[in-house]
């Protein structure tokens, strides 16, 4: 039956396709004794053999659609399925304890997982615990007659439906077949949403109930522009979505004409519109959309997509590829921002009550200096290949900034002593995403070459509203005067101290925020590549003389975010007339 859901528009575009539910089935079972051991063993062996065939199929399609590296994990799964130590132990359990296969599997898998996880001095073996968990899940699903989702083996057009998508789930999606996605939870700045924008996939997040409202294979229509999702749409609704999609593509074609144009206002003032990227693979989108710089390279994805810490050389190659790909235009690379909602399977960090207020980003780097130093060396070596800016995330105090800079200077000296080639005009900057840093921006500005405002976090910390929690999304207000005052103070402090100020949070590419930021004199706007041409077109329409008063009004006269949204909407009516 047709049903419309309202979510958060997370990535532009329209898609209509059958749903692919990326939802894990309930794998609970009841332990039982068996009288006919032989037929139980036969049932168990059948589950192993269908699981093996399935993993081989997934591996082959992952190799084709995603590449050798992404397919590696399935080789590890096959090794476990073929390992007599593992499969034999389950058989013995069935024979000796006369228990059903489910119980024998669960018991044995737990034993292996405990052993592997206990090998704290051998990270490689520790990671095998995750593989055993995955493989056991698959065998269990077959024993219980349930189906596990396999995103890497999708081979027809679908809209992926999930409770939430982790960055690694998102990385497994093949753009050729995945036409969009819809989730129960998450906000516009959740990492799954950010990935969707870099993949240029229409996405709606935070619908609350999509996984319950749609069946596998049922048609879903996704409007990533306004957050609407229709389950089982009528023919006329499908026609309407197709029309909307055509209109969107037409608008995109108009914007595309600006690809090689500079970013200038109606009165000829020049600013920089840059792109945010997560991996070197995003460079295609950066160049296709005419970015004038890379304003944020989130290096944590390099760590998240690896099975172990990326080596200095692996990092160097990735950074160099991006720097060279920009042909002399600036690239700002941010040191890793692990922690918060970003985890590494191979780095067992203590659980925290409040991960977003815990050991995250620069805090983690400063507590694990060797890992930090490796990254800095890779960055310094890559700096020789173009125009690099190194940026520290989550700086909250002058002390943290000074410590990070001192470590960087030490590595720079050591490399110089070895005669390693490095850039002579490297810039060192920091993100302003902790309210304390925004308040002290006048002091911090004296010690860096640039600021980049991270509104995704600055808003969540200022408003005390989790950026991914739908229940407090009403408080997540980019245009709230409190947030705007912090932004304005930061920009003014930067300019008073002769440094430039950019923004790499999602607000930089938000059409409502943009006129206010332009009025504040923000120098650089870094956003998902797919937003660049829309913002360039908007910039072209605005005259800085006409919006001189907007910043002050938005910060000091308005009392609410809604008033500011109205101010911009009134302004745009005049501009578009
Ligand atoms: C750009 C930002 O960083 P991230 O989204 O990676 O936390 C931000 O906080 O605005
Ligand atoms: Mg941040």
Automatic annotation (TrEMBL):
Major localization listed first in the record, in broad terms: cytoplasm
Stored Gene3D superfamilies: Phosphoenolpyruvate-binding domains, Phosphohistidine domain, PtsI, HPr-binding domain
Known catalytic reactions: L-histidyl-[protein] + phosphoenolpyruvate = N(pros)-phospho-L-histidyl-[protein] + pyruvate
Cofactor: Mg(2+)
Region forming the signal peptide: none
Record GO biological process: phosphoenolpyruvate-dependent sugar phosphotransferase system
Residues that coordinate or bind phosphoenolpyruvate: 298, 334, 456-457, 467
Catalytic residues, chain numbering: 191 (tele-phosphohistidine intermediate), 504 (proton donor)
InterPro entries attached to this UniProt entry: PEP-util_enz_mobile_dom, PEP-utilizing_PTS_enzyme, PEP_util_AS, PEP_util_C, PEP_util_CS, Phosphohistidine_dom_sf, PTS_EI, PTS_EI-like
Ranges of residues in domain Phosphotransferase system enzyme I N-terminal: 6-128
SUPFAM superfamilies recorded: Enzyme I of the PEP:sugar phosphotransferase system HPr-binding (sub)domain (SSF47831), Phosphoenolpyruvate/pyruvate domain (SSF51621), Phosphohistidine domain (SSF52009)
One Pfam entry name: PEP-utilisers_N
A GO term from the CC aspect: cytoplasm
Residue stretches making up the PEP-utilising enzyme mobile domain: 155-227
Superkingdom in the source lineage: Bacteria
EC number(s) from the headed UniProt entry: 2.7.3.9
Presence of the UniProt keyword Nucleus in the record: no
Residues annotated as binding Mg(2+): 433, 457
Domain PEP-utilising enzyme C-terminal: 252-543
UniProt keyword annotations, A-Z: Cytoplasm, Kinase, Magnesium, Metal-binding, Phosphotransferase system, Sugar transport, Transferase, Transport
Enzyme superclass (EC): transferase
Molecular function in Gene Ontology: kinase activity; metal ion binding; phosphoenolpyruvate-protein phosphotransferase activity
Function of the molecule: General (non sugar-specific) component of the phosphoenolpyruvate-dependent sugar phosphotransferase system (sugar PTS). This major carbohydrate active-transport system catalyzes the phosphorylation of incoming sugar substrates concomitantly with their translocation across the cell membrane. Enzyme I transfers the phosphoryl group from phosphoenolpyruvate (PEP) to the phosphoryl carrier protein (HPr).
Protein family (similarity comment): Belongs to the PEP-utilizing enzyme family.
PANTHER family: PHOSPHOENOLPYRUVATE-PROTEIN PHOSPHOTRANSFERASE (PTHR46244)
Name this protein carries in UniProt: Phosphoenolpyruvate-protein phosphotransferase
